[in-house]
Amino acid sequence: MKTKNNMTLIGMFLLLSACSLDTTSEPDVEPVTTPVINTPAILSGDLDKSVQFDDTTDVTGTVIITDPDTAEDRVDSQVSLATTYGVFSIQNDGSWVYTLTTSNADVMALDGTSDTLTDMISVKSADGVTAQINITITGKAPDPVAATTKVLKITDTDSSDSGELRHKLANPLAAGKITARFLKEEVLTDGGSAKEAYIALWGSSTSTNNALVDLRIGNGTFQIRNASTSVTQTFTLEEWVDVEMTWDATDTTAAPLVTVKINGVDSGLGTFSSFSNDLSSLASGVEKLVFKLSDNGSTVNGAVYYDDIKVYSDTAGTALEWSEDFEGFDSGYDLSVTYDDSATNEAFVAEVSTGLVDTNAPSNVLRITDTDSSDSGELRHKLANPLATGTITARFLKEEVLTDGGSAKEAYIALWGSSTSTNNALVDLRIGNGTFQIRNASTSVTQTFTLEEWVNVEMTWDATDTTAAPLVTVKINGVDSGLGTFSSFSNDLSSIASGVEKLVFKLSDNGSTVNGAVYYDDIKVYSDTAATALEWSEDFEGFASGYDLSVTYNDSATNEAFVAVK
Q1: CB 3.0-4.6 Å disulfide test: which of 105, 129, 282, 443 passes with 125?
Q2: pLDDT in tens, 537-562
Q3: What's the pLDDT at 34?
Q4: What is the CA radius of gyration of the chain?
Q5: Which residue stretches of the chain have pLDDT < 70?
Q6: Residue 124, class by beta-carbon neighbours within 10 Å (0-12 exposed, 13-18 middle, 19+ buried)?
Q7: Handedness of CA 199, 204, 205, 209 (dihedral sign)
Q8: Which ranges constitute the DSSP H helices of 21-124?
Q9: How many domains, the chain?
Q10: Residues of the domain holding 543
Q11: Residue 12 falls within a domain, yes or no?
Q12: What are the protein's UniProt keywords (predicted)?
């Protein structure tokens, strides 16, 4: 017999069993997370620096870390890391310092700015991106080399004769000009008496008092022999002085007319009649030149130097008759062997400093090549402000530049306005393999040049008259191009209305590759045609050899323009 309690227990058991077999209940759900995506850092900033081999000053820089990820805009720090040629440290913020080990044997062996080493240092960002810092170590630039020149040196240590060089012209010159320069030391006898030097022009007589003109050069003052009027010009001992004298003896019924200039300034006598005591000896004009020191009865301490002597057969100085610069002789050469007039005595060749820096001494220059068939080699620079007037001076050296097929290619120095078209340039000097052209000009440049020799270029412009084409001049090695002052040949005068805005130094063109290079140096831009107000200059001495100038001159057109030692 089933009881009520038993029935209750059975029902509960069935209910529990049913619950334990229920498979429709919801499972536990795991939370969903978004995956983190790393953005690689970008490292930039001071990744290239240079230092001279003997420089103990710390080289510093900063690596810029660009990384949007949280707390990853940093680099791994390094402290006093021994590198190949120095010691390097970097902080998390990217600031770094490098100290060159100047005692390193390889560093000490560097010779000249073209001799370099590179210390390569790896740095790493927080997320593992690496970059390389390159420290270029250069040898010391050579000390400036004083330019020298060969000159005539005259002394007088012979008590029976003066020091002298005498030269007889091939033919008497009835009219003409002589230019020369001299440098005189203080010249004294042992007793302290001052003695003169002389530049004299003689006719047929060899007497000093019969000279057509005799310039007496004291220890700072001048006199014209036999003249009662003094020369107003003075000079400084041991400095070079330019002298110019002209004569005209074509009127045989009167004394020849003479002018004397010192450093381009009239002597104070104007045009004067010769003070010669024997006019008949001057009937044919000048026959002999005399460069002299002291006299026949003295010996002196000190010397006089003469150089760059030129004689012309006209008073304008256009027809060169004879010249002597003494460069064809060895230093110490006895000039009485060549100038064998019996009066030539104690006249020797000496090599002296010009007081200038030798422009042929090695220096940093711009080197442009063209190995890219889709672009030319070029350095382009935009001036801070357009210049309505101005002067540019520069020098270039061009190797023979040829394509593989043997076609010659030009280099260029161009001045642009707002347009970047070559045909719109204010002036574009095209530099061939020895010749020049002005772009768009129908008249040829008369000057030529020698490959692999430095050539000086000067160009001026005046665009102040906006109703007309700018006026331009071009000189090569100080000589006019043959075009004189000309109107710009630009095809777009409106683009040069404000004057010059950009400078262009270029080699070849966009469609060629070439063998050979062009070099430029000592670029100066003035804001006036007289070249007195310097606006901008570049001599490339502030860069290491091999430096890519597109980094500094970052016009998009700058290409294959590097610093070289030349």
Answers
A1: 129
A2: 999 988 888 899 999 998 889 999 99
A3: 63
A4: 40
A5: 1-36, 113-114, 141-146, 354-362
A6: middle
A7: negative
A8: 105-108
A9: 3
A10: 364-565
A11: no
A12: Signal
